[in-house]
Amino acid sequence: MIPSSPPSLPFPEFEPGWVWLAGAGPGDPGLLTLHAWHALRHADVIVYDALVGPDILGMAREGCRLEFAGKRGGKPSPKQPDISNRLVQLARDGLRVLRLKGGDPFVFGRGGEEALTLVEHHIPFRVIPGITAGIGGLAYAGIPVTHRDTNHAVTFMTGHSASGLVPDTIDWAAVARGSQVIVLYMALKHLRTIAGNFISAGRPADQAVAIVTNATLPNQHVLETTLERCADDVAANGIEPPALVVVGDVVLLRPALDWIGAMSHRAGD
Ligand code: SAH
């Protein structure tokens, strides 16, 4: 018989006073790892970000406390040191603390910063990687991040620095020339500047771009566009975060590989 719940692997014991820093994947609860699932079932408190959806939080053990630590309704988000210190405090209270973040905690997720605070305060911790949106989210849009005929390299970038501006530590021209496929997180706000930077650095204006919103969720939306048109198309279509922007010829594989689109056509046959 096929078991209806995850197998009883020799899961590590979630001990009181520990913080587990886990990724929840891009959205679809089926993309949680078994370690993340085990953590949800054993945590005393979950400190979660805005990108962790209700279906995933609904898997938490009964009686587990849920603490929100993201941006809500235009209100400023809690300051990063406040979140890190909160984790320290909860662990010192002797709780099993699950810090749950969208995607992977170490990919544009500030997981490293929080882990460093735990180290500083001698709080024991475990890291549970997750499927990052820039890979798993694009897979749900039918876009492989590498493909032998198109690219042998891929660059993951953020379009937003800690100051909220276009990151100025990036050599845009070097990335434009050197990376065949570029996957951008948090890039909607400054998309016009970013696309302009790539074109100025020699990237073809008609290069394919896809913008994937709410990737892996039922309301996933994919816009296929080009570098020169993408900012206008985002505005014209009212595209809102969370969104990934992917630049490069892998986008051209989507018409063949859009397996979600194929499923819905089949359902409509
Ligand atoms: N740690 C996360 C990234 C956090 S930064 C990870 O590894 O995926 C937040 C950004 O991630 C969003 O602004 C968006 O660019 C991207 N993102 C996360 N989830 C997404 C989703 N379901 N659909 C589209 N973009 C997503």
Characterize the structure shown.
By secondary structure, the chain is of the alpha/beta class. It folds into 2 domains: 19-131, Tetrapyrrole methylase, N-terminal domain (Cobalt-precorrin-4 Transmethylase, domain 1); 134-259, Tetrapyrrole methylase, C-terminal domain (Methyltransferase, Cobalt-precorrin-4 Transmethylase, Domain 2, 2-Layer Sandwich). The protein has helices spanning 34-42, 54-57, 80-92, 111-120, 133-140, 172-178, 191-200, 230-236, 254-257, 259-268; strands spanning 19-23, 45-48, 65-68, 97-101, 125-128, 154-158, 181-185, 208-213, 221-226, 243-247. The two termini are 33 Å apart. The strands form 2 sheets. The protein has a 5-stranded parallel β-sheet, sandwiched between helices. The protein is built from 10 helices and 10 strands. Helix 3 (80-92) packs across helix 4 and helix 6 crosses helix 7 (191-200). Strand 6, helix 6 and strand 7 form a beta-alpha-beta unit. Bound molecules: S-adenosyl-L-homocysteine. S-adenosyl-L-homocysteine (SAH) is lined by residues 26-27, 51, 101-104, 107-109, 132-133, 137, 185-186, 212-217, 241-244.
Blueprint of the fold:
Elements: E1 19-23, H1 34-42, E2 45-48, H2 54-57, E3 65-68, H3 80-92, E4 97-101, H4 111-120, E5 125-128, H5 133-140, E6 154-158, H6 172-178, E7 181-185, H7 191-200, E8 208-213, E9 221-226, H8 230-236, E10 243-247, H9 254-257, H10 259-268
Parallel strand pairs: 1-4, 1-5, 2-3, 2-4, 6-7
Antiparallel strand pairs: 7-10, 8-9, 8-10
Helix pairs in contact: 3-4, 6-7
Bound molecules: S-adenosyl-L-homocysteine.
Family: Belongs to the precorrin methyltransferase family.
GO molecular function, one term: uroporphyrin-III C-methyltransferase activity
InterPro entries: 4pyrrol_Mease (IPR000878), 4pyrrol_Methylase_sf (IPR035996), 4pyrrole_Mease_sub1 (IPR014777), 4pyrrole_Mease_sub2 (IPR014776), CobA/CysG_C (IPR006366), Siro_Cobalamin_biosynth (IPR050161), Uropor_MeTrfase_CS (IPR003043)
